[in-house]
From TrEMBL:
It is a multi-pass membrane protein. This is Trace amine-associated receptor 13c-like. The lineage of its organism: Eukaryota, Metazoa, Chordata, Craniata, Vertebrata. It comes from Betta splendens. It is found in: Cell membrane. Residues 1-23, 59-310 form the G-protein coupled receptors family 1 profile domain. Residues 42-314 form the G-protein coupled receptors family 2 profile domain.
Length: 340
């Protein structure tokens, strides 16, 4: 019945290419082999991805509500955190549930839905990476040029940068998937498959090599300046003969800065490197294969870790979570609460 429906759809909606497509369907469908996963493996995938999806939505929603509601958090840096949380929230709300459906042997939502899913995937993931680059730039200016930070980084400039980042992300996703959007399913080897075709080399450079290089360079520069400032402070402490009592504090500050920056870079690399490694395997990406599913899951998991890395290190976030959990935000004038 499904094949009959597909045959009638092609005959009516695409009569000029009816004979060609029907011939391809006969040839390709004969060699199409469905890979059925063991029930235990499928169950683990469903439970794990569902839990990560729910956790990603909840954590990023807490960040979004906190920054939007409390006026004290309406700063330039927090606007970048808000944009990052929105992109990661969409990953958990839209991308992950559809990725769970790809664990099935057959994609039953149609070729257009497959292409639309990949389009949203590109937008959300690339927007998340772009926001991380903007946060790196913000931290670089704040630490390396503190005297000029208030003039160089304003809320208006940050809003324009965030808007431009999202616009460029949508444009990039459209250009990368233009062939797939023009003719959904053209790269499928059989019906019921979700297969896309992208320029792996271009995608690797634009969406991974360039942003990760910028993040590493900026964070290394920030770390060097932070260590230099800590050493200068330690020298000043020694000059006033308080070195013994405060050296431990300075050393802890250096270690904390190194640890946070190290977590940011290492987690990003661990989550993104494997997924972009499959770009070297060929231009076609079969979305439902077990290996690719694991690599994509790592990228999505980064969206779950981002609110932990960027928000849970801030004491104000923990206070906001308590106020939200206690429904304090429903009280009048709660937006004026001191959360810093």
């Amino acid at each position: 019945m499904v094949l009959i429906s597909v045959d009638r759809y092609v005959a009516i909606c695409d009569p000029l290419r009816y004979s060609t497509k029907v011939t391809q369907m006969k040839l390709l469908n004969a060699s199409c082999k469905r890979i059925t996963r063991p029930r235990s493996e499928a169950l683990i995938i469903y439970i794990l991805m569902s839990c990560v999806s729910l956790l990603t939505v909840v954590l990023n929603l807490l960040v979004i509500v906190s920054i939007i509601h409390f006026r004290q958090l309406h700063t330039s840096t927090n606007l970048l955190l808000l944009s990052l949380a929105v992109s990661d929230f969409l990953v958990g709300l839209i991308v992950m549930p559809f990725q769970i459906l790809l664990t099935e042997p057959c994609w039953f939502l149609g070729e257009l839905t497959c292409t639309a899913f990949v389009f949203v995937l590109y937008i959300t993931v690339c927007a998340s990476v772009g926001n991380m680059v903007l946060i790196s730039v913000d931290r670089y200016v704040a630490i390396c040029e503190p005297l000029h930070y208030s003039t160089k980084v304003t809320r208006t400039k940050v809003k324009l940068c965030v808007l431009l980042s999202w616009v460029l992300t949508v444009f990039y996703a459209f250009m990368m998937l233009y062939g797939n959007l023009e003719d959904p399913g053209r790269f499928n080897s059989c019906y019921g498959e979700c297969l896309i075709n992208v320029n792996a080399a271009v995608d690797l450079v634009i969406s991974f090599i360039l942003p990760i290089s910028a993040i590493i360079v900026l964070y290394v520069r920030v770390f060097v300046v932070a260590v230099s400032q800590a050493r200068s402070m330690r020298s000043h402490i020694a000059a006033i003969k308080l070195q013994r009592s405060l050296t431990v504090t300075v050393q802890r500050s250096e270690l904390k800065a190194a640890r946070i920056l190290g977590v940011v870079v290492v987690v990003f690399l661990m989550c993104y490197c494997p997924s972009y490694g499959i770009s070297f395997s060929g231009p076609a990406i079969k979305m439902s294969s077990s290996t690719n599913l694991f690599f994509f899951f790592l990228v999505y998991f980064n969206s779950c870790l981002n609110p932990v890395i960027y928000a849970f290190f801030y004491p104000w976030f923990r206070k906001c979570v308590k106020l939200i959990a206690m429904l304090h935000i429903l009280q009048p004038q709660s937006c004026l609460t001191n959360v810093m």
